[in-house]
Request: fold
Amino acid sequence: MRIRLDPWPIDTQDGQLTLEPFKGLVFNVESDDWRAIPTRGIPKRVTKVLVVDGKPRMEARLLLEDDAGNMSLAGFGAFVVGAVSLCPHGSRQAELVDVKARRVLAYSGDVLLEPTRLSPRNPHTGVLEYAPHAYSGAHVEGARSAVQSLMLNAERDFSRELASEMPLDEADENALPETLVLQDGPVRVGEAGRAVIGYVKTLHTDYLGADRIGLLAQLGCGERTPILRFTVGDSGEADYRGREQRFTWYVRLCDAPFYQHPLAGVMRLEMHAPEDTDFVPRAVIDAANLSGALLTRLGSQLHKDARAPQNLIPTAALEHAMTRAMGSHELVTRRIRTHLARELREGVLA
Reply:
C-alpha cells in the first residue's frame, strides 16, 4: 500500500481530493485522442483578466417569536463580492476593481420584516443595517444557506457585468474577447454568452472515469486535457433533461511533490456550452489554450498559502480585502448582543 498526502490543511471544510464518480454522460468534443495538450501562450488581443470571488459569513443565529408565540429560526449574515483586474502580459500592476459588501437578516416565514439597524455608541464606527430576506423551510442551517445563495447570485451578476460577450462561432480566429473573467467555483446559470471561466480548486467529482483519469497525473506544468462536455446534474437516467450544458477541461499548475497525491496541482475549469451544437466554439478552445500559461503565473506558493497552488494569488489578496469590508467579526458580534439586549430591556420596561 502506498500512502500519499492530500496537500490542503485539515481545518479546511473539505480536502482537495474526493473524486465522487459523476453519474451522467461525459462526451469528447475537442478530440478523441486523449492526450496532454501544451499551452499556446496568451494572445495579445486578451488585454484584461478579472478574478472574481465572494465570501459569506454568518454573524449570529437567531430565534424569532411573533405575537402569537410562534417561533422560527433566523440569522444575521453578511456577504461580499469583489474583483481584481490583471494584465495577463504583466504590463501593469494588479488593481482592486471593487468590493461590495451587504448584510442580511435571513429568516424563515412569510411575514414582512423591517430592516434591522444596529446603531453604535461610537458614531465613528458606522451603522450596521441588515436587509430582511425570507427563505422557505425550517432547517437549522437555512439562514446560512440563504446567505450563501445570495452571495453566489451576486457573484454571478458581478462576473456577467465585467465579462465580455462570448462569440459562439466555430472558426473565427478573432473570436476570443479582450476581457476574460476567472470566477472562483463553477460557472453559474445565467452567465451563458459571457466570457466567464469557472475555476474549481477541488476535485470532488470525477468527470473522467477510470479510462481517462490517469492522464491528470501525467500532465506537465501548463498542460491541459482535451475539452469535454457534460450536462449539469445529469443523474444517468435515460430520460434525464438537465438545465444546462458545460465544457470542462483540466490544467496542471505545478508538479506535485513526491509525497503528495499525483493529482495535487491540478485544477478543473468550466465554461458554458451552447445547446444543440456538436462543436466547440473557437473562443472556448482559445480560452482553454491560454489557461495553462495564465494559471501557472497566478498559482500560489505553499510557503505563502496552505491551499497552494489552486488558491490563486489574486484570490488570496481579494479574500483579505473582502474580510476587511465585512469588518471585525468579534466587534460585529458584540454590537449584535448589545443591540438585542437594549431592545429587550426597553421592551420589558415599557
